[in-house]
Amino acid sequence: MGIRATSSKPLFCYSKLLCISVIYLFTSLFLVLYTSFISPTNCLFRYSPNDPIQTPLFLYNSSYGEHKHALPTFRMSCNSPVYFSDYWNALKEMNEFSENSTFLGSQNLRYIQGNADSFGGNFSIKKRFSYFDHRRHDGIEVPCGFFKGFPITKFDRISMENCKGIVVISATFNDHDKIRQPKGLGKDTPYSVCFYMFVDDVTLKGLQYHNLISTTSSEENSVGVWRIVKVEKGNLYENSAMNGVIPKYLVHRLFPNSKYSIWIDAKIQLVVDPFLLIHSLVVMEDVDMAISRHPFYVHTMEEAMATARWKKWWDVDGLMKQMETYCDNGLQPWSPEKPYPSDVPDSAIILRKHSVATNLFSCLLFNELEGFNPRDQLPFAYVRDLMDPKLKLNMFDVEVFEQVAVEYRHNLKNDGVSKPTVMPKKTKRASSKFLVNGTSSKCDSYLLKMWGES
Questions:
Q1: Which burial class, exposed, middle or buried, applies to 336 when counting CB atoms under 10 A from its CB (0-12, 13-18, 19+)?
Q2: pTM attached to this predicted model
Q3: Contact 394, 349 (CB under 8 A)
Q4: Pairing between strand 405-407 and 393-396?
Q5: C-beta separation of 224 from 310 below 8 A
C-alpha cells in the first residue's frame, strides 16, 4: 500500500502574524533598494572616502548645545544628482593642482590701502559701482576692506597665511550657534585642510564655561578640527552679522595663499569631505564658485520683500532705497535668458576657487553689504550680472545642499553665560509711498517684468 503524498506549507505560514510580518519585511526591503539604487530621480551621492574617520572628531560635554536641534528636510529626490570621485583620487588631483599651478587671483587684483573710519572704507554708491568693470580698468586698485586692522593675534595671522590648499571657514558671534564637527572626512583631510572658526569674546567665554577650550592658552585653541580665532569685534562693526561677513566674503584676503575655500554658516554641519565637495562641484564643473540656489525665490525682489516682511532687517526704508538703487542702475528680474538658474542663492555654503573673478566678486559684494546691510542675498544678482569679468557659477539644487550638509537651529535659550552685547533694533516701518498704485517707483519696470505684465 503506497504512501499518500501530502503538501505542507512553510512553517512560518502556520502563524498568520508571522507570515504577514515576513511579507512586510521583504516588501520594505524591496522599496528601500528600489529608491536607493534603481529610481532614476533619487539623489544618489556616490562617494567613498576610503577608510573615512568613523570615531567622533571631538567629544562635547552633554550640556553644550543640547537645545539646538536639526531642521527637518522633506525632499527625497532631486533632478541633478552629484557623483563624487573616489576620495584618494580626488585628494591626489587636488594636491597636485594646488602644488603645480600658480593662482593669479590675488596677484592680479590690487587693493586700495589706507585708513578709514569703517573697515570697508564707506564708499559712496557711485564710487562703488565704478569698480564693477574691472576688465576695462585692469590693474586699477579695488576697495576690498581692511581700512581698519582686522583685530586678531599675530600668531593667528601667520597661521592663516601658511594655509596653502583648501580652507574651511565659519564664524559665530554672541554664542549664537554650537560649533559642530564635520562628518565623512577622509583619513588625510584633518591634516591637509585648514579649518578655522572665528568667534568673539562672548562665544569664547561660552566655550570656556563648558570646558571645551583652555582658559590659559593665549596663542592657539582648537575644538576638534576647528582652530578657534578670537576677533575683537568691538573694533569692527556694531552689528555682529556684518562682522561675520568679513571672513565670509574676504576669505581670499585673510588666507592669501589658499587656493580654494569653503564657507559654511555656523548653523551648518558638513557631512561630505571638503576635497570631494570642491573636486565635484567646482573643479569638475570648471567654475569659479558653487552655491546653492534658494529653495523658494528666484527674483531678488522676492527676497527683499521677504526680508522686510519677516523682519530679517530692521530698516525697511533702507531696503527700499537699496532695491531702487539697483533697479535704477541695471538690475533685471530673473529670466530664462540669464545663464544662471536663479537670482537668489542660499549662501549658507559657498565653495570658491580663488580666481580673479571670484575675488573681485567677493570684494564688490562686501562693499555693497557695508553700503546697505549684511543681507548678502540682496546684492548677489546685481553684482554677479553687472561685474566684468563674468563669474562662472554653479548654482546647484537645494536638494544637493540638503545631502551634503545638515542645518541646525540657532540658540533657543540663554544658558546664563552668553548674552547678546547689542540688542536688536526696532523695525522701522516702510514709508507708504513704496509700491503704491499710482506712485512712480524706479522698480516699476522690474516688477512688471517679474509679474509677466510687460
A1: exposed
A2: 0.85
A3: no
A4: unpaired
A5: no
CA atoms within 13 A on the CB side of 310: 8
Cα 96 to its chain centre, rounded Å, is 26
- With vertex at residue 406, the alpha carbon angle to CA 267 and CA 306, rounded to the nearest 5 degrees, is 60
What is the spatial distance between Cα 294 and Cα 304, in angstroms, rounded to a whole number?
Answer: 13
How many beta carbons lie within 10 A of that of residue 383, not counting itself?
Answer: 24
pLDDT digit string, tens, across residues 10-52:
554 556 666 676 676 766 666 545 444 444 445 556 665 556 7
Show the cell assigned to 212.
571645551
pLDDT tens, residue by residue, 404-452: 999 987 764 444 444 444 444 555 544 444 444 445 689 999 999 999 8
Closest C-alpha among 135, 105, 126, 396 to residue 258: 105
Specify the amino acid at residue 25: L
- At 15, list the grid cell: 502563524
Distance CA 211, CA 215 (A): 8
> Maximum distance among all alpha carbons in the chain?
113
Residues of 167-177 as b/e, b for ≥16 C-beta within 10 angstroms? bbbbbbbbbbb
Q: Go through 257-288 and write b for each residue having 16 or more CB atoms within 10 A of its CB, e for each that does not.
A: ebbbbbbbbbbbbbebbbbbbbbbbbbbbebb
Reported residue count of the chain is 454
